[in-house]
Amino acid sequence: MLQISFIRQNIDFVKERIQHKNFKEVSIVDSIVALDEQVRKLKVESETLQASMNTASKEIGMLMGKGEKGLAEEKKEEVSKNKSALQQLNEQLGAAEKQLQDELVKLPNLPHSTVPKGKTPEENEVVRAGGNKPVLPETAVPHWELIKKYDLVDFETGAKITGSGFPLYKGKGAKLQRSLIQYFLDYNTAAGYTEYLPPLLVNEASAYGTGQLPDKEGQMYHATADNFYMIPTAEVPVTNIYRDEIVKESELPIKMTAYTPCFRREAGSFGADVRGLNRVHQFDKVEIIQLVHPEKSYEVLEEMVQHVEQLLQNLQLPYRLLRLCGGDMSFASAITYDFEVYSAAQQKWLEVSSVSNFESFQSNRLKARFKDANGKTQLVHTLNGSSLALPRIVASLLENNQTEKGILLPEVLHAYFGKNSIGDL
RNA sequence: GGAGACGUGUCCGAGUGGUUGAAGGAGCACGCCUGGAAAGUGUGUAUAUGGGAAACUGUAUCAAGGGUUCGAAUCCCUUCGUCUCCGCCA
Questions:
Q1: Which of A4-8, A22-26, A86-90, A321-325 has the highest mean pLDDT?
Q2: Is A246 helix (H, G, I), strand (E, B) or coil?
Q3: Residue among A424, A419, A393, A381 nearest A406 (CA)
Q4: Which of A51, A147, A315, A337 is most exposed, with the fewest beta carbons within 10 Å of its own?
Q5: Which fold is adopted by the domain A4-104?
Q6: Where are chain A's structural domains?
Q7: Per-residue exposure over A331-351, b if at least 16 CB sit within 10 Å of its own CB, e if not
Q8: Sheet architecture: strand order including A369-371
C-alpha cells in the first residue's frame, strides 16, 4: 500500500507510474485524493466537537467534586445534546475512511525507474545468462518420464490422496527434496540469514499484511472453519514477524531464510504448463527475506540477486536473469528480477526464483518500522527472493543431467544426498 | 473440547467510574558528582494521526472490537491470547 501522504504530494507522478505497470484505472488516484481530503475535513470537525465534550466532562467531574450538583446536571444536558451530532459525524467519517482504504489497497506499487516498459512476459528484459545448455542424446526424455523410470514421484497416488498437483515424493525423489532444502538453507545461513521454520497457516491479518489479501484471495487455500489461510510462500509468515514492530536502526538489515511447503490453488492453469513438476499445488521452497534501511534497498537487491545467481552456478544449471517489465511484475513489487533455468529435454525456460524490492509498499501495510538516528520512525524496505523453488530445479536437474544409466548430481549435493547420482552409475 | 484465573507503557507493578497518558520501581538517554567507573543525584523517557513555519496543540490508544455513561484502564458483551485443572493426543 502506498503512503497517502506520498500520493497527496505526487499525484501526477503516481498516475504516470502506475500506467507503466499497465494499471488502467488511473482515476482511482483522483478519488483517493478527494476521499483523503474529505476524511481529513471530517476528522477535524469530529475532533473539535470531541474536544469540547471532553472539556465539559472534566468540568462536570470538578463540579461533582465540589458538590455542586445542580450545575453539573446542567452541563450534562448540554453535552448530551452534542452526542447525536458527534455520532453522525463519526459515521460519515468511518464510511469515508473505509472507502479511502478500499481504494488505496487497489493501487499497485510504483515501478522503479529502471523497470522496462511492457505488458507481457515476452517484453521482459534478459539481463544476462550463465551456465551451459547441455547437449543431450537423442534418447533424452522430459523429467516426468525420468521420474517414472527412477520412481521418484508418484503423481497418481498423490492425486488419489488429495488431488492432481499434489506430488507424492518417494525414495530417492524424497531424499533429493530433503537434500536440496538442506543445501539451500545451509547456503543461506552461511551468508548471514537467520533460519526460521514458521507456521504454514496464517490468519487474515498476516495475509493482509503482505498483500495476499484482498488481492489474491482466490490463489490461497482457505481453512474456513478457523479462517486461516495456507501460505502460498514463506514470505507471508516470515515477513509478518515484523508486523506492527519498531526496530532499532542498528538491527537493520534483518536477514531471514525459511524453508516451507507452499500451497497455491493455481486456478485456471492447464496443459503443458502443468505437466510433471512444472506447476503444482504444493511445492517446497526456500525463501530469503530482508528488512533494510530505505537507502540500502537497491544495494541489497543486487546482493540478493548475486546470492541466488551463485546458487544456480553451484548447481551447474544453465540460467538466465530477467528484469521483469512493468506489466509482468507483481502488484506489490517496485522491481522484480526472475531467474529461469533451462530444462533441456522440454527445451523450456522455467522460473525458479523471483527477487523483488517492495520498498515501503509492504511495510506500510505491515507497519514494520525502525527508529532512525533522529528518533523518527520510518518504514523499512522489504525484499524477498526464492533461493530456491524446488520442483523446477528438480525438473531441470533431472533433464539436463540424464545419461543412459542414470542422473548425475552436481557436486554440492553429493554429501547431502549421500551419493553422486540417481540410478546405476 | 469443558471449568476457572488473567491480559496496564521497554520491563516489573499500582490503579473497580471523574483534571489517569496512566502512581511507584527498574531499564534507557542526557547532565551533575568522579582521575575513571560504580554508587549517589537531577532531568527526560510511548505510538498513531490532525492543525501549526515553529513553540505548541487537538484526537485516539491500558490485548482487540463493540456497548453503557456527561465521563471508562475501571461496568457489560464478543473475539483473540496466556496460565491452572480436567478431557484428548504426537
A1: A321-325
A2: strand
A3: A424
A4: A51
A5: Helix Hairpins (1.10.287)
A6: 4-104, 121-423
A7: bbbbbbbbbbbbbbbbebbbe
A8: A246-248, A369-371, A377-379
User: CA A194 → C1' B64, Å?
Assistant: 31
- Per the CB < 8 A criterion, the answer to whether A153 and A394 are in contact is no
pLDDT band at A424 (very low <50, low <70, confident <90, very high): confident
Fold of domain A121-423 = BirA Bifunctional Protein; domain 2 (3.30.930)
3-state secondary structure of A259: strand
Q: How far is the CA of A346 from the C1' of B65 (A)?
A: 54
Tell me the C-alpha distance between A80 and A197, whole Å: 55
- Report pLDDT for A350: 95
* Lowest mean pLDDT segment, chosen from A83-92, A324-333, A381-390, A407-416: A83-92
Beta bridge partners of A195: A257
> What's the grid cell of residue A355?
527477487
**Amino acid type, A300:** V
Could you give the C-alpha distances from A243 to A4, A277, A379, in angstroms and in order? 19, 34, 11
Residue A229, CA atoms < 13 Å, CB-side half-sphere? 26
The DSSP code for A249 is G
DSSP string, A108-167: PPPPPTTSPP-SSGGGPEEEEEES------TT---HHHHHHHHT-EEHHHHHHHT-TT--
All cell numbers assigned to A62: 470538578
Nucleotides of B under 7 A from a protein CB: 18-19, 47-51, 58-60, 70-71
Q: Which residue has the higher pLDDT, A181 or A75?
A: A181
Nearest nucleotide from residue A73 CA, by C1' atom = B70
Report the b/e string of A255-288 with b at 16+ CB within 10 A. bbbbbbebbbbeeeeeeeeeebbbbbbbbbbbbb
- The yes-or-no verdict on residue A1 having pLDDT over 90 is no
Q: Which nucleotide is nearest to A80 (CA to C1')?
A: B70
- Quick check: A366 pLDDT over 80? yes
User: Is pLDDT of A245 > 90?
Assistant: no
Measuring from the CA of residue A371 to each C1' atom, give the nucleotide at the shortest distance.
B47
Distance A47 CA to B46 C1' (A): 21
Query: What ipTM goes with this model?
Result: 0.82
Asked if residues A94 and A86 have their Cβ atoms less than 8 Å apart, the reply is: no
